[in-house]
Amino acid sequence: MKRPSPIPASALPAAAFRAPARVRFGDCDPAGIVFFPNWFSMASATIEDLFRERLGIDFHALHAERGIGTGFVHAAASFMRPGMMGDDVLLTPLIRRIGGASYALDLHIHRGEEELARLDLVTATTDLATRTSRPVPPDLRAALLRYMSECGPSEGQEIPA
To answer: What is the mean pLDDT of residues 75-90?
Structure first.
């Protein structure tokens, strides 16, 4: 696996959604460095915010009322610099691919211009009643495509046919 090179925050698409977060005491190990699974927790919160604020889809209603799950089926990370207690960071999700029953994204985490980590996430859509995969709902697909288009092409992005 080739480790990605850090990119500055200003190199990300200007139209991309950015979620601010603060690294809290409880996010860190005894050395004051972000404990790695907490980056994934912050990523999950960012995706919920992306749904509400940019995609116009109620993440909670998608799950609770519509019975559609959006769970990670793949999660990997490249860590470039340690995040420290008290850091103000920006989390920027960019859609890389939209498939039949899943979508993939890169989530960049920056402190100022410095990229601290990049998460490689794949989310599958599932029927929560049967616990089986199901196609990405048309409204979610349309919203993801719109966001992808607004951000413009990014490295590794696969444009759906």
So the answer is: 97
Between CA 73 and CA 2 the distance in angstroms is 21
Distance CA 69, CA 132 (A): 10
* Whole-number Å distance between alpha carbons of 57 and 84: 32
d(CA 15, CA 19): 13
User: Taking the model in full, what pTM does it have?
Assistant: 0.92
- For the segment(s) 16-151, the CATH number from 3.10.129.10, 3.30.390.10, 3.30.420.10, 3.40.50.2000 is 3.10.129.10
For residue 2, what pLDDT is reported?
82
**Cα–Cα distances in angstroms (integers) from residue 121 to residues 26, 32, 76, 78, in the given order:** 24, 26, 7, 12
Cα(120)–Cα(77) distance, integer angstroms: 6
